[in-house]
Amino acid sequence: MDFKVEESTIQEIQQAFGEGKLTSRQLIDFYLHQIETLNPILGGVIEVNPDEADNERMEKEIKGQLLHLHGIPVLLKDTIGTKDKMNTTAGSYALLGSKVARDAGVVVRLREAGAIILGKASLSEWYKFRSLSGVPDGWCARAGQGLNPYVSSGAGGTPCGSSSGSAISVAANMVSVALGTETHSSIICPSVHNSVVGIKPTVGLTTRAGVIPMTPRWDTIGPICRTVSDAVYVLDVIAGFDPRDEATSEGTKFIPQGGYKQFLNKDGLKGKRLGIVRHPFVEKIHGTAELEAFELHIDTLRQKGAKVLDNMKIENIDIILEPNHSGEISVMMADFKTSVNVYLKELLDSPVLSLKDVIAFNESNAELEKLAEHDQKTFIEAEETNGFGEHEKEIVSKLDSLCLNGLEKLMKEHKLDSIVTPGSRACAVFAIGGYPAITVPAGYERDGMPFGICFGGLKGTEPKLIEISYGFEQATKVRTPPPLHHT
């Protein structure tokens, strides 16, 4: 093979295909070897797709006209349904053997674009909603504990979650690109912690049809990749209307003619108005390297032509950042119970048909699920709700007000193109408003632990966020592969 697959981008892979330096078979074999070698250590992949081992099919695809993601292997978070030999289980044994009626909407789009569905990525089981405190980030029964490839397990480096396996696998070069899902921090946080790029799209920009739901009013599906350009290539494919997800009727109105690749502009920072939101995010930085890097990166933004407005304040930020105080968790519980019951009943075959059944399964299979008594506390509390009622409607109205008087007011008053925050600490702001955000690697602590920088904005502002994040990435090029990759 006359091509280095490690750290290669979609463009580089497809160019190698065209020049005869790489075949899809060779590419798949490289990633399968990586998974065989590294996954026993990292726990990023739950299962590999046996249907994608068809050499003749892959070679035929590559010889034809290249589509957007032709021949590119993709890992899917194990909540994204596939109508094939793989399971869709949210990392739990409770759904092992369940049968989905069809491919999830985003999977249909990936396959149509020529992508190869390589397998399912691990995750914080059930989006870590089984228990908010009893289960570690990146842990699920089927795959065990996912580990951060940059920091040894003894050093306490978490992969974060819930899309932990997607971020781990992309970071460690076990796959080209991956999909994750986010309700509250589940793409942004693992992307930050594993030194990769994550895009949380505007809710409704990508379809959630066929994906195990968490909180449909806030759920979104997005790419996790090593570069901004790869993430944008994937976003271009998965964004669009789906009659099976009514949220896409509004969300996809934001998609620009010609798609998102046109905004991969290395001078994308020039003329942008960026609001640096320090409080309370900077105070929560623990590492000195991240603190120093954040200040240097702000200087870089200025040097690349951005108008930087420092010390911006989001009204009621302390309330927004406390999901129990704001009521966000109450809405999640009610929405989760209702939506997961609908999902389970629509399966062609399933060992469980309701959240109540899942709780009972876990209790009966405590050893299989490695379950302690407190490890499904949130499930039990969600089951005790009466679904989405007047109380929850009042909370949503309050959250809408927090958005209107918070991020929206700040952005509009100062004519900002994006806010800028360190790490994943502002995820609650983006969650409750259905707003988009992009995180880019920003550096490493002295123990190797990665950190990132996050650009977020109002609904539909992906074009500006892509220009900003790509401009930043090209100016800094911070990302390096994890040391585990070389063992």
Automatic annotation (TrEMBL):
Residues 27-465 form the Amidase domain. Coiled coil: none annotated. It comes from the Eukaryota. InterPro entries: Amidase_dom, AS_sf. PANTHER family: AMIDASE (PTHR42678), AMIDASE C869.01 (PTHR42678:SF25). This is Amidase domain-containing protein. It comes from Penstemon davidsonii.
